[in-house]
Write a structure and sequence with these properties.
The protein is α+β, with helices and mostly antiparallel strands. It has helices at about 20-25, 65-70, 80-85, 200-210, 210-220, 275-280, 290-300, 320-325, 335-360; strands at about 50, 55-65, 90-100, 110-120, 135-140, 170, 175-180, 190, 195, 235, 240, 315-320. It has a domain at about 50-250 and about 315-355. A hairpin with a 5-residue loop joins strand 10 and strand 11 (about 240).
């Protein structure tokens, strides 16, 4: 219901009370125009064009290796740029489950947690108890459905989820993390062209993975002679590739375990606030914040803290127009996405090693110390002051 505003009536003077005829002559204002009617909308119109895609949408993504090398600060490494340009990447179908960062106006990308979409049963991973039947069909596909379909809205019987491809699955425990690039202006993401999942089915989707995740957990909890491992496989060119199940760790930036420590790091959590130059100051200066506040800030709820693992998270171009970029027969396996991430990670690590070696070569050699010789001790006296009587 609109609101109405009318101009006040000052025909009886500013106070609304006429005291005398003379007052009426001197105090009456000039005639006012007829009352104007203004309507105030309760809800401001929202544009369907956004700089980042909304969550609960299906999307097509493609990794940009050159941009990953550039944003890792390795743009001057000719060898790394050449390797990135030579890397051929595919377009993959994913479901944007949720956004992770709170983007700022200057943000170039935003992290999302996504579920890759496949057209085959799940790749088997015996080391983690993952079997091919651990899938969830996406309507209109109903094959291998072992739990109530989450793609219905029990409170809205008229809701129908429409998906353009007929033979697609979610793989259980295959969710991963991507950085989706910003697109401003008229080139933004047109949500009118998106295939979206309603809110209540979206909530039920994660719960549908529960029984299979419990099976995997029971398998991993069983005693074995040797601990469960996650061995890498190799591509035809000898490059290590990502196994069928990358097992991202949410507390370590969801970086694949195979990439942990490749920079000589000490495997600190990615959301640790004391990285790089920050560690040199924070360790020596006492904090003025209460411990609960420090602990809350260390969680990096908005994704603003520097994170060395970020450069390994695939940076992708994204499209919401599914059928313009993929067809039923061209949807690739999610394993290819993880393999591409592994190869780009190898390129980045090699460039970092070359950079570190070049820096080490410019450092002066250490001064040799003869046996029994001690280095001079620094005096505690201020400069210019003589010690002694």
């Amino acid at each position: 219901m609109p609101y109405f505003f009318h101009s006040p009536d000052f025909s009886n003077g500013p106070s609304g009370v006429r005291t005398s005829e003379s007052d009426a002559t001197t105090m009456s204002p000039a005639p006012l125009p007829p009352a104007r009617r203004f309507e105030v909308s309760r809800k401001a119109p929202s544009s369907p064009i956004t700089i980042f895609p909304l969550q609960r949408r299906f999307a097509v993504v493609q990794v940009d290796p050159v941009a990953m090398v550039m944003m890792a600060g390795l743009g001057r490494d000719v060898e790394a740029l050449a390797a990135a340009k030579a890397l051929v990447t595919k377009k993959y179908l994913v479901y944007l489950e949720s956004g992770i960062d709170l983007p700022m106006p200057q943000s170039q990308w935003c992290r999302y947690r996504v579920n890759p979409v496949a057209t085959t049963l799940r790749e088997e991973c015996p080391e983690w108890g993952a079997s091919p039947d651990m899938v969830l069909p996406i309507p209109p596909n109903t094959a291998h459905l072992r739990v109530p379909s989450p793609f219905v809205d029990v409170k809205d019987p008229g809701y129908v989820f429409k998906f353009p491809f007929k033979n697609c699955f979610f793989w259980v425990d295959s969710d991963t993390e991507l950085r989706i690039r910003v697109r401003g202006g008229d080139a933004g993401y047109d949500d009118r062209k998106a295939v979206a999942l309603a809110f209540r089915p979206h909530l039920r989707l994660r719960g549908s993975f529960g029984p299979d995740l419990a099976r995997m957990s029971d398998f991993l909890s069983q005693p074995r002679d040797k601990p469960a491992t996650h061995p890498p496989t190799a591509a035809s060119d000898g490059t290590p590739t990502m196994p069928p199940n990358p097992h991202y760790d949410a507390m370590v930036g969801r970086l694949p375990r195979l990439l942990d420590g490749l920079e000589g790091s000490d495997n600190r959590p990615a959301n640790d606030a004391h990285h790089d130059e920050a560690s040199s100051t924070s360790d020596s200066q006492p904090s003025s914040m209460p411990p609960p506040v420090e602990e809350l800030l260390s969680l990096d709820l908005f994704g603003w803290l520097p994170d060395p693992a970020t450069k390994y998270i695939p940076l992708v171009n994204c499209w919401l127009e599914l059928e313009e970029h993929l067809s039923e027969s061209t949807i690739p396996s999610p394993v290819g996405l993880w393999t591409e991430q592994q190869r780009i990670g190898a390129i980045i690590n090699a460039a970092i090693e070359r950079r570190n070696a070049a820096l080490a070569a410019t450092q002066p050699p250490p001064v040799p110390v003869s046996p029994g010789e001690t280095l001079p001790q620094a005096t505690s006296e201020p400069p210019g002051k003589m010690s002694g009587p």
